Amino acid sequence: MKVCMDHPLHQELLARLERELEVLPDKPDETPRNTLDCLWALVAGHPLALSQVEAAELVELDRAGQERLRQLVASRLANMPLAHLTGRQDFMGLVLLASQAALVPRRETELLGWSVLAKIESTGAARPLVVDLCTGCGNLALAVAIHAPRASVWGSDVSPQAVELARENARFVGRPDVTFVAGDLAEPFDHPDFLGRVDVLICNPPYISSAKVDTMCAEIREHEPRLAFDGGPFGVQILLRLLKDAPRLLKPGGWLLFEVGLGQGGPMHKRLAGLPAFAEVESIRDVKGDIRVLAARRSAIAGVDRPA
């Protein structure tokens, strides 16, 4: 039987969520209403992402199901991310599997994804080679594979658990041809098949300072892997390694694109612009005007590289 929104249990739990739920700014799609509906659908045996739940029909729950729903609402209010409860997360029009093995994809990272697609189109390559470092659950790599199907896409992560989740997601979205490997940043691609041959190199690296990670909200600090956030003492440890490694992978004219934290865009742009390995640097701003993505085109001149 389809449940109406004036169902007593729905009204009770919605009222509680409206009073107590604190939605993080980096998860703007979540509301008390769709949170409850996602959890209701989950109890009914139909795990859904937020993008899917509006069209879903909620069915009557038996007594055990109602108790399970109350427990799930309590878990959400105790800072368990919704994506960890449902096992689903939206990203660039895809529904992906989510777990504690990797960072939950954020809407803000879609700016990087759409920017990558624009650069892939600009290469004009018949089968562009795209490599995604710090791939996490594989969200960027798989979004590229779906939206730019002619690309050959690879991803890597230092966490074997994240790589396994990315492989599960590749099967889940029907792109098992996207290859995910475990390894530290660019290390898995230190091979003639990749050196100097990558058209577009992507990275959403950890860029939060180690000290700040300890002060992040409980929903992040207690449930998502620290490895996905901790960028070292000043938050730029992985970013600097990326700038050093990227020129060896990129073909002349190839593009490096990566996400940066608030306040990092200006200094990182300046650093990139001072490197002979890159001929052009672009700052890409979000709707608030903050630089959140940097894009750098590999110089076509050989023999000018120097460490970042």
Topology readout:
Layout: H1 8-20, H2 32-43, H3 50-53, H4 63-77, H5 82-86, E1 88-91, E2 94-97, H6 110-123, E3 129-133, H7 139-147, E4 152-157, H8 160-172, E5 179-182, E6 198-203, H9 210-213, H10 218-221, H11 237-249, E7 250-259, H12 265-273, E8 278-285, E9 291-298
Parallel strand pairs: 3-4, 3-6, 4-5, 6-7
Antiparallel strand pairs: 1-2, 7-9, 8-9
Can you give a write-up of this model?
- The protein has 308 residues and is of the alpha/beta class.
- It folds into two domains: 8-86, Helicase, Ruva Protein, domain 3 (Orthogonal Bundle); 107-298, 3-Layer(aba) Sandwich (Rossmann fold), CATH 3.40.50.150.
- Helices cover 37% and strands 18% of the residues.
- The chain is built from twelve helices and nine strands.
- A seven-stranded mixed sheet has the order 5-4-3-6-7-9-8, with helices on both faces.
- A hairpin with a 2-residue loop joins strand 1 (88-91) and strand 2 (94-97).
- Helix 1 (8-20) packs across helix 2 (32-43), helix 1 (8-20) packs parallel to helix 4 (63-77) and helix 2 packs across helix 4 (63-77).
- The longest helix has 15 residues, at 63-77.
- The protein is elongated.
- The model is unreliable at 302-308 (pLDDT under 50).
Query: Given the structure, what is the number of helices?
Result: 12
Which strand order spans the largest sheet, edge to edge or round the barrel? Answer: 5-4-3-6-7-9-8
- Name of the CATH architecture of the largest domain: 3-Layer(aba) Sandwich
CATH fold-level assignment of the largest domain:
Rossmann fold
- Domain module tally: 2
Number of strands: 9
Q: State the share of residues found in helices, binned by percent.
A: 25-40%
Q: Please give the CATH class of the largest domain.
A: Alpha Beta
- SSE order in H/E notation? HHHHHEEHEHEHEEHHHEHEE
| Average of per-residue pLDDT values | 94
